[in-house]
Amino acid sequence: MKLKINYINNCESHAKDFPEFDNILRMEELIYSIDKGRSSENDTLVINIQIAEKKGFIHYPLENQPVLTQERLLQLSTPKDANILPFLIKEETAYLKKSSGRSIEKNRTPLNYIHVSYLAVLEVMKLFITTGKLYFQGKALTIDIYNKTEFYYVAEGKDVLGYMKTGSQEFTLSSCDCVIRGSPHFFVKGILLRPIMSDISWKDLKASFEGKIRPLPELLQEAEEDNDAPRVLITESDSSPLFKTPEPLPILVLKDRLGAFARLEMRYETESIDYHDQTKHTAITRQLAVEAAWEKDLLETSYIKKMVGTSHYYCPLDKVAKSIAFILEMGWQVKDFQGNTVHLQNNIEIHTETNRDHILIRGKVHYDKFEADLTDIVGAFNRRDRFAVIAPGHVALLPSNIEQFGYDFSADAIEIVGNTFQVKKNQIGALTQLFENNPRVRLDEGLLDLKNKLETFQGINTTLPGSGFLGTLRPYQQEGLNWLRFLHDFSFNGILADDMGLGKTVQLIAFLSTLTLSGPVLIVMPTSLIFNWKKELERFLPSLPCTIYHGSERNMDLARSDKSQIILTTYTTLRLDFAILSQISYECLILDEAQAIKNANTQTSKLVAKLDATFRLSITGTPVENNLMELWSHFHVLMPDLFGEEKAFESEVQAGLSDPRFLRRIQRKCRPFLLRRRKEDVAKDLPEKIEQIVWVEMEEAQRSIYESFLSGIRKNLLTKVSTDGLAKHRMEVLEAIMRLRQICCHPLLVGTHDGEVGESAKLEALVQDLETAISEGRKILVYSQFTSMLALISKRVKEAGWKYVYLDGSTKDREKVVNEFQNNSEISIFLISLKAGGIGLNLTAADYVFLYDPWWNNAVENQAIDRAHRIGRKDTVIAKRYIIAESIEEKILKLKLAKSALASDLFDDAMTISSLSTEDLTFLL
User: Whole-model pTM above 0.85?
Assistant: First the structure.
């Protein structure tokens, strides 16, 4: 699994960068609501389509609803929308054509409101049954098209009321929440939506709902003339009114602490009777049919009949909260095992306050007319209670999932202090879910400012490089500088994880130029990058003192050296001299190629974590290479309390395999502190081709071989040249130059030297870059003049398990090899001989071109780069030249700049030997 996080883009672009989080980010769903104000507009049912964020069992519509076009609706569609959405679009198409003669434009016509013909209402309700996503006034509706509901009139003296009868339940039409025109008509009461089976006109039904019923004589005459007309029941004014006989109301009495076992009571005004009590009650005439209907409603939840002691019903523990919430929504009364009345949550109010180090959160949860501190409710949830006391005789039903409060307040990052939740500022990423589009949360000014700065670069102040910085930043690099300075100013730490070639080093140097240092900056890196960092600092920030603490150059007393300086060292040196390096307090600790600390159990990770530094930054193109535990290791060094203990983090990762909410929580925590831009994200800011020089310093063994060989040349060959002239010893000169170049590539190319074979610092630098590029999913061309060097590279590539193709002068079927690289996504590397592959090939699939050893002629190198940078390629090509510092390679580079004609003269058959002066030769050798 490879994690790639792009901080500056919104959630939808995140899904492109790390598909393993795709399910996490797709927590937004379409929901459909009946608009009461428009429910019968133009003889149509109006359905409002909204985007809602799903939290637990509840959908919360986004505060600012975007315009939904047909294309956008289809993008957000899930399997649940597969049948209903095309039907609704079809209905809106017919409505537009009929009302205005227009048709739906795929990308332009707003479809937030859909008009359904009243003739199609029954069909649309049947489709909605399977979705569970039809809402009315914020509540999900249960659609029942099978229980028949009858409408009739009841006359009490001069008053005429419309009544509804469903099974044994009777109620006035005006007590319903909404009526909908259809064939048949429908009504909404509570969370139930049912059809009205009586033959009544829409005009009369709507008038009855609004209390504007026709005169009684008209209704009686209509009922007499039409057998299908609604019945009219008349009561005498001096007799007991019809339907006023007390009806039983259900009470669910819970028999245990968790609510798994229960019994059912029926309350007749002032007396409650056990539903299963078969004895006669002379004072009460029991309505057994009504009681049975209430029990039927109970059994439609997850409660089942099960006789245990004095209880008659049982519900699985994981379904208790949902079942009780359902019957409370229907208007039932519920008592807990101690006789307390159970209440359902109405809403929640949350307020924040920010101080220097912490975010303070206070909240009130409302249950009908009662309210409770959020900390008390969460505390009860953490104790695994099912109910929390909110007043004498009253308890609150706790949700089965604490995120139904809008956030997991039981998370490790949160500490409860009194009636306040306390969160460290660097945990703000974990609070994103609480803040996003949540009208219940009121943010204080300090937190609102911090949140805005974390969410968008537009909120972060622009920080210009210091006066000592000599470079020019591209727009995305300027944004990177702003982000780095923001982290530093707010006492955060982070990971700069841009793609290779986008200038992470330059952004960091620009950041250093903005600081007024009160202590040294320690930059730790692989050995192969020491000289490259030194060169880049000399180039872009020469005013800041720079010290290399590595190899033979580490005999200085760092504790007494300049406080305002940069110290360059390696991971190996850090391990060897930790006792010395750990005595210093650093202003900044920078870890380049920070995958060196991806394993928290290594000595390197443990020692780096112990260093004292005010600001810490990791630089790596691959923050996660193999698994998410590597991300924990990075932040354990940067901000140890961000993810907590290793075992707890590992448990969250494991839980995330089956529940994406856990992975989403991880992603939210680290997102503010990890900046990654891919080449595609900043393409508009990049030139078509970027060329870079990677400076590499030889290891001691390799340098020893090189200096020994060079000493022999100076002692023998240069003496001959100075005596006899250059022309007489031309071939010996060329041979000597080639041998020095080969030692720079790898000592193995010239065999052993005094029985020793040194390692190649350049090869290690190349392998490091290959690893980064492959982890990004890129393709790479690797050129060398020496086929023997390509053989050594191929050996390392095989050991790493990377797939590659190879081309040199002996390759017979060049077209086959090229096609395989271009079209096979599994092949990432193309090893090419510079002479054989420098021209005549079209390799536009390559993103990077690595020139392992420099060539004399710039035109030859440019031709090699242009194999990838050709017409037909849209993306930027990044080319890297690997140069050994303080060697013949560096001198060739300088000489090419000083004498542009030398490159063509030196190896041209028509050249004259006099064009290469003795001074030039002395300079090279």
Answer: no
